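Can't attach files on this board, so I'm pasting raw text. These are the components:
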Amino acid sequence: KIFHLGACRVSMSMTEIRAGFSAIKANIQSRDPLRSLSILSHPHSLHKVKVGDRCCITHHLFTFYVDKVFKHCRTEDSFVNRKISSIANSFLSARRKLGQCREQNNCVCGEESTEKFKQILANYEGLNVTSAAMKSLGELDILLDWMEKAR
Amino acid sequence: SGELYCSLPNPRNVRFESVNMKNVLHWSAPEGTGDGVLYKVKYAVYGVGKWIRKPECRNINRTWCDLSSETSDYEEQYYASVKAFLNGTCSDWMETTRFNPLTDTKIDPPMVSVSSTDKSISIILTAPEKWKRSPEEESVSLLQVYPGLQYNVSVLNKKTKKRWFFSISNNTLVVPWLEPGTVYCVSAQIHVTTPLLDSGFSKEHCIATLKDK
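---
Top answer:
C-alpha cells for the assembled complex are below.
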C-alpha cells in the first residue's frame, strides 16, 4: 500500500503488518493493565494532525517505534517475538524510505506535529521502559488506523 | 463505594459482539447461578481515566447490553465491564479486552441486485451501512469507513454448473457473452484487505437471460 505524505510517498506491506499485529494483539494488550493512559491517542488524537504535518509526524513515529518500542518488547513467547521482529523490519524499511524522501523534500515539521510528538514522548517517558514499549506496541493499530484512514 | 462483600462467581466470557459497528456487550451468567441474577454495566474509553455507567443496563437480568451509541467513534478504543448481583452479594467487575470498533467488527454481505439481457447480466452491489442511532441520522456506508473495500462476486451457470469469480472495487459489474435463456446465480462478498475483514457471501440471486430474439 502506498501512503501519500505531503511531498513524500512510502509503500508499506500493511496486510502483513496488520496480520502480524492481529496475531499478537490480545497477548500484547493483556500485558498492559493501564487502561486510563494512552501513548498515541490522548490527550490529543492522531486524527487531529493536519495533512501538512503528516509527513513529519509519520517519520517521527516510525523512528519512535524503531528506536524506542520494538527493541524493548522481547517476551518469553517465541511466536510473539517473531511477529514483533517481522513488524519491526517493515517499519525499519519504511523509515529508511521516508527518511530519504524527507531530506530531499524537507518535509516540514509544523508546530502542531512537533507538539503532538512531544506529548507522545512525554506519555512514553511517564512509564518505565518495558511498560511504555509494551503499551506502545499494543497501540500499533491506532497508528495503522490513522495512517490508512487518511491515505 | 458502599459495595457489598463480593463472593458471587463472576460473569463469564465478557466480550463485544459487533456487526457493521453495532457494538453489543455480551456475557454469560456466573457459573452455578440460576435465575434472579442482576447485572450492571460500565464502559471506558481507552486512554481516558474514568469508567462511565450505562444507566439503561443497570439492574438488568439479560446478559447483553447495547453500547453502540457509546462506542460509535471508531477513532477511539474501548473497554466494558460487568458486575453481577444476587441475594445481597455480588461478583467482581469483569472486563472485556480492548475493543477497536474499526478492526473488531464483522461486516454483513453486500446487497445484490441483478438484471439481464439476452447475453449478459448486470450486477449492482451495495455495501451495508454503519450502525446509526436513529433512522433520521445520516447514513454512513462502510465504503466510507473502509476506503479499500472490494467485492468478490461469484456467478454460476445453473445449467453447466460453471462458476466465475470476479474481484471488483466499484459496485457494478456486467458479465457479457452469456447463453440466452439460461439461469445464472449471483452471490457476493465484501473484502477489506487492511484491516483484514471479510463478510460472508450473500445469498444467491438467480436470473434468467432473455431468450434469443
